[in-house]
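A reminder from the course coordinator: this example appears on the midterm review sheet, so study it carefully.

Given structure:
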């Protein structure tokens, strides 16, 4: 039965060679812009490609400002600082996410609280979020206080798993009611919309990643988006070692970070951004093919975009009805030249986060045991 799946994937990708889960495609102006960037000698963090990329990116997602960073994790780190998260504060996120989301919270010395996801989106569940807040928190002086720990919950970081938008409008409403800042981890969802609005633009701040395996890549890279001019200025300042403008003196007014994206990476990224629509269409078409193929399978369902959403289908995902079959499939495919990957382990199963507060994580556990990513690269 699994050999049929392998044959199907080989047919789609038109090869019997090794098929990676996801590979970058450089078919546009990448070399042209990179050569131009090298010739200009402006290879570091100041340069026209950084400026141009930020302008084009903001336009693409419909946010007022975009600030390019060295990677998605640094974008999250700085966004949380700008959301006023401080040492000993608390930040709500989902247990089912990539570890970077939780790491960024810990960089500040804040503590994550892990809340369940919805089965249909695999992203933070507004119902679980509201239930947790109603049962465990109270508003004191318009601050959300966790009654168990007496600490302040400052921010909430939902994540759009594999590019499928979570119920972000509902989450935003709840955050507003509790005076919690919404910071969207949209690392995986460039090109994905919720009710026709781009993911990453619902909260105070949103971030995207351009790591080598993301839908577009700069080798490494990230970006912060916001509509708040003040936050945008601060984001640029903090990511540029908090250096004050001066013609010849070194003056810094904060502990800053060396987090700006180099011009070289921005040159590559601008060329990638020009191809984003094409990549998204390619992946959505692939999803249609998988959906049709798995219709006949009574053990596996293909995971489709949730309602009210347009997904970029960054990583294609299937779910085993019986969790017992997941490992056999992973072993069989990886032993037969087709790379597949399990969904992440829940954060609460990692040693660093095992003592963090969480809810019952019922859906997260269900998905953890059953979801697998299959070949997702753009077909050329
Ligand atoms: C990729 C990713 C990040 C981090 O991005 P980097 O650019 O690798 O630092 C953060 N969150 C999620 C959910 C991701 O998938």
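Designed residues:
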């Amino acid at each position: 039965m699994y050999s049929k799946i392998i044959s199907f994937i080989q047919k789609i990708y038109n090869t019997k060679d090794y098929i990676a889960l996801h590979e970058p495609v450089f078919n546009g102006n990448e070399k042209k812009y990179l050569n131009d960037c090298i010739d200009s000698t402006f290879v570091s963090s100041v340069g026209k490609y950084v400026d141009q990329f930020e302008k084009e990116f903001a336009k693409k997602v419909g946010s007022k400002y975009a600030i390019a960073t060295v990677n998605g994790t640094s974008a999250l780190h700085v966004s949380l600082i700008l959301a006023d998260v401080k040492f000993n504060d608390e930040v709500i996120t989902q247990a089912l996410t990539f570890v970077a989301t939780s790491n960024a919270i810990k960089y500040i010395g804040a503590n994550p609280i892990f809340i369940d996801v919805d089965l249909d989106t695999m992203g933070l569940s507004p119902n679980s979020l509201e239930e947790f807040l109603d049962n465990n928190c109270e508003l004191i002086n318009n601050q959300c206080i966790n009654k168990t720990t007496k600490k302040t919950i400052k921010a909430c970081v939902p994540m759009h798993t594999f590019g499928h938008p979570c119920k972000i409008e509902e989450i935003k409403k709840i955050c507003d009611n509790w005076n919690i800042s919404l910071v969207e981890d949209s690392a995986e969802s460039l090109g994905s919309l919720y009710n026709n609005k781009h993911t990453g633009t619902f909260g105070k701040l949103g971030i995207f990643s351009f790591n080598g395996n993301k839908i577009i890549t700069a080798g490494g890279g990230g970006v912060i988006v916001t509509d708040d001019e003040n936050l945008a200025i601060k984001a640029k300042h903090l990511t540029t070692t908090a250096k004050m403008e001066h013609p010849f003196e070194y003056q810094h007014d904060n502990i800053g970070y060396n987090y700006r994206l180099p011009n070289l990476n921005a040159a590559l990224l601008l060329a990638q951004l020009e191809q984003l629509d094409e990549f998204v269409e390619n992946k959505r078409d692939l999803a249609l093919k998988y959906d049709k193929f798995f219709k006949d399978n009574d053990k596996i369902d293909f995971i489709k975009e949730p309602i009210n959403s347009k997904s970029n289908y960054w990583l294609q995902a299937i779910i085993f009805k019986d969790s017992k079959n997941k490992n056999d499939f992973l072993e069989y495919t990886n032993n037969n030249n087709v790379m597949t990957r399990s969904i992440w382990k829940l954060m609460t199963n990692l040693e660093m986060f095992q003592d963090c507060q969480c809810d019952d994580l019922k859906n997260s556990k269900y998905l953890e045991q059953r979801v697998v990513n299959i070949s997702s690269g753009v077909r050329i």
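Residues 2-25+276-373 form a domain with the Aspartate Aminotransferase, domain 1 fold (CATH 3.90.1150.10). Residues 71-73, 97-98, 100-101, 159, 185, 187-188, 209, 211, 222 surround pyridoxal-5'-phosphate (CB under 6 Å).
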